[in-house]
Amino acid sequence: MRIGIIYRHHDDGFSEGLAQEAMDQINRRKRHSAEIYKQDGEYDVVMTIGGDGTVLRAHQTVQIEVPLFCVNSGTVGYLTDVPSDKLRKGINTLLDTGGTAHIYDTLEGDLGGGKITQSAINEILMKLSSPTSMIKMEIYIDGEFIDTVLGDGFMVSTALGSTAYSYSAGGSVLHPKSGCLILTVVAPYKPFTSIVVPNDSEILLVPQRSYTEKIVICDGILQEERIQGVDGTIKISLAKKPRQFIKVFGKGYFEKIRQRRR
Fold first, then answer.
1. Does domain 107-238 fall into CATH 2.60.200.30?
2. Which residues, at least 6 apart from 193, have a Cβ–Cβ distance to it below 8 Å?
3. Least crowded by CB within 10 Å, which of 49, 97, 107, 203?
């Protein structure tokens, strides 16, 4: 097994030290090798060492066909599986058994006919670049008009991503096997309940006037595309390719939620 490692920076070298420890352990094993991830490298698995942000950045960087094996050295680490103090045990289990594959939905966005270059594990958000400005949108689901809503932002989340920004904005928690997406409005001017739809739905957001600085954020990462003009719509739907995670401990879903909320 050939493993590339992506680790969190700016934590006083803690994650970097874990990365070195992981490489030393893996490279001592026959038929296995590890190195710091290279963009042009070929890997069977990519290991992330950090928190959820590290996992999300890895998703944006690593080819979608390559599974992620995630070690938590951050604060939240909801998307991770292996605690940093169980790194050695986690690696041994991965190398000995291959772990268990978990497949999670990803999202894609279409900006008036042009695709957003990156897919999202958690959510796709449309908002204005000014933090004090609101945006008014018409919402359509599978072509059916739902409502016109004013709010700070509009996001569509996967079931896995329902525990992230959507949850902070008041959305419900979905089980990752539920096969659903959730539409949540950030700070709506009037009460608006999040809408849960099947994951094969297409959600269309249509701005009600020509906002000059509409932006799109995928998993907390600002996309280069800025949507100008009155036709700056965005259609969000399930991406064709999901992301695979390799897990060796596999704590219960709600147990992880309970732990992360403490």
1. yes
2. none
3. 97
